[in-house]
Design goal:
By secondary structure, the chain is an alpha+beta fold. Helices cover 44% and strands 35% of the residues. It has 2 domains: 39 residues; 77 residues, no CATH class. The longest helix is centred in the N-terminal third of the chain and has 35 residues.
Amino acid sequence: MMARSRTRSRAGAFLALAMTVAVAWAFTGAGAAQAAGPAVAAPQVEIKKHSTGKEATFTYGDGEWFIHIDVDQDRTMIIRTESQNGKETKNQAEIVERPMSNAEVDRIINDWASGIKSTLKP
């Protein structure tokens, strides 16, 4: 008899604790979701291949990053731009005095995208 009443009292205490936690979570969880506002969209990356190289656009919120790599028989031209709210904030051009391979172009684009992603993380 004694064991049965202890089990019921422990079950009642556990149930009360579980209900308190659930109610507290419901209030704080809902408040946090409202305070955070609308969810920010995930970054969008678009890579296009063209006859003489590649270009990529990285869009996140109101920022846009763009890279264009053009390879000809003598050199490689790399153009990087950054814009915020539709206004260009950075524009960098670089000329490499040799043609780059497809693997090098891919590596530059991947490194560029990884660099942008790392700067966006809080």
